[in-house]
Design a protein that fits this description.
By secondary structure, the protein is of the alpha/beta class. Helices cover 29% and strands 28% of the residues. Strand 7, helix 6 and strand 8 form a beta-alpha-beta unit. The radius of gyration is 23 Å and the shape is globular. Bound molecules: adenosine-5'-diphosphate and magnesium ion (MG). Magnesium ion (MG) binds next to helix 1. The site of magnesium ion has 2 residues, from helix 1.
């Protein structure tokens, strides 16, 4: 399912309470991509996700699924469309406490008066490693198992698109990493398109084909994890993704930049001559040498042992 959002805006309230939660967002999503939406709290991630799923309608702009304008559907058509095609996973697992794991999983099917496809259910629960837990009640399961049940429930009706809003936020680090691998595996095996909201940059870099970086209701950059990390389009993106040193500099001419009183060769072109620019230096790109042997002398003021490396 190809999705195209054009100039999507969402404005809440008016007068003094007016908030532009999303400002003219453009986005193209191709089938079975893993898209992450990243940004600080309040940057419009959930708003964008809700608009993309038709859970909410925009103040202006359009959204098409395989060329069909889904905002032109009636509310009834839209909710039928969502139930069939889109799965949701939120940070809160929202399992019904009085139902067993299996009953929770097949709930969306029962609501639609469908019978579960036992073979698919078996594949799904095995894929998620919960086949032995199906007769248990939610309170008899660990947090990770509950989240897996919620994931199985979201994809039990074989949606084409899965929307996840900070789904691993409530899990501890180790479990979160395990679930990251499982989600990727799930995506690869089932060929579903994932749209994943997170504020965890490592999660976004590890899991995504495409990352959307947002700030203050604007999409700042859309690109592969490598693009976003290596070629940030602005200082916000550079600062938000990864650690970076951002230094006021002057582009002397193509491929030559000046900062901290020295001239440096670089790969960038097209900024003109003697133009002010921001230079971003990733910490791992700094090479330490004996005093006097490098381009700049400096002082190491803090040293932190991080296991794999020192910072
Ligand atoms: P994020 O998910 O990135 O934290 P949101 O999309 O939830 O951000 O919110 C973006 C902005 O829109 C925030 O300033 C938020 O306060 C505002 N907002 C979100 N939902 C509503 C609403 N229902 N009414 C008024 N303001 C809202
Ligand atoms: Mg949110």
């Amino acid at each position: 399912m190809n999705i195209e959002a054009k100039n999507l805006s969402k404005i809440y309230g008016d007068g003094e309470n007016r908030v532009v939660a999303l400002d003219r967002a453009n986005l193209e999503i191709v089938s079975s991509d893993f898209i992450s939406i990243m940004g600080p709290s309040g940057s419009g991630k959930s708003t964008l996700l809700h608009l993309l799923s038709g859970l909410d309608k925009p103040s202006s702009g359009s959204l098409t699924y395989d060329g069909k304008d889904i905002y032109s559907y009636s509310d009834k058509e839209l909710s039928a469309f969502r139930r069939k095609r889109i799965g949701f996973i939120f940070q809160q697992f929202n399992l019904l406490p009085v139902l067993t794991a299996k009953e929770n999983i097949i709930m969306p099917l029962l609501l639609d008066k469908q019978k579960p496809d036992e073979a698919y259910l078996k594949q799904l629960t095995e894929l998620l490693g919960i086949q032995g837990r199906l007769e248990h009640l939610p309170h008899e399961l660990s947090g990770g198992q509950q989240q897996r049940i919620a994931i199985a429930r979201a994809i039990v009706n074989e949606p084409k698109l899965l929307l996840l809003d900070e789904p691993l936020g409530a899990l501890d680090l180790k479990l979160r990493q395990d679930m990251q691998y499982e989600l990727i595996r799930l995506k690869n095996e089932l060929g579903i398109t994932f749209i994943y909201v997170t504020h965890d940059q490592e999660e976004a870099l590890t899991m995504s084909d495409t990352i959307v970086v947002m700030n203050q209701g604007y999409i700042q950059q859309v690109g592969t994890p490598e693009d976003i990390y290596n070629e940030p389009e602005n200082a916000f993106v550079a600062d938000f993704i990864g650690d970076s040193n951002i230094i006021d500099s002057v582009m002397i001419r193509d491929k030559l930049v000046s900062f901290l009183g020295k001239k440096w060769d670089c790969v960038d072109t097209g900024f003109g001559e003697n133009k002010p620019v921001d230079v971003v230096i990733r910490p791992e790109d700094v090479i330490l040498k004996e005093e006097g042997a490098g381009t700049l002398d400096g002082v190491v003021s803090h040293l932190i042992f991080k296991g794999v490396h020192y910072e």
